[in-house]
Design goal:
The protein has helices at 7-20, 38-59, 66-69, 71-92, 101-124. By secondary structure, the protein is mainly α. The chain starts with 6 loop residues before the first helix and ends with a helix.
């Protein structure tokens, strides 16, 4: 396995972790945050990028490996585990943050769309 191809994904995962780790009182005030369900869009976008980069990292592995052949399954699994994990972290550890099912669902939906976009990218680049 060549971890170098997963570095962008790991870097993005760190950015997501930092973003979800900001205590609620330190979040910037913005009118956008007052829009209904705007935070779900943010969650979806964060995990869209995570899934796209993760799929790229798995896809770029040696074609004979199981990681390459099943990159979509591995990406989906990584997105689900990380998406639920970040919400549990917010719920149990981060002050003034409230991990919840709806945010976890937005993370998973973002993961699915990121994976689908990567698959389309692979199909159309051949």
């Amino acid at each position: 396995m060549k971890p170098v191809f997963l570095l962008p994904s790991l870097g993005w995962a760190l950015i997501v972790l930092i973003a979800i780790g900001v205590p609620g009182s330190h979040l910037p005030g913005s009118e956008l945050l007052r829009l209904p369900h705007f935070d779900k869009l943010v969650h979806g976008i964060l995990f869209f990028v995570f899934a796209f980069l993760t799929a790229y990292g798995f896809y770029k592995q040696d074609p004979s490996t199981i990681v390459h052949r099943h990159y979509a399954s591995w990406t989906l699994l990584a997105g689900i585990v990380y998406g639920i994990g970040t919400e549990l972290l917010q719920y149990h550890v981060i002050p003034e943050r409230h991990g919840n099912f709806a945010d976890a669902a937005a993370n998973i939906v973002g993961t699915i769309f990121g994976l689908l976009m990567f698959r389309a990218f692979v199909l159309f680049s051949k």
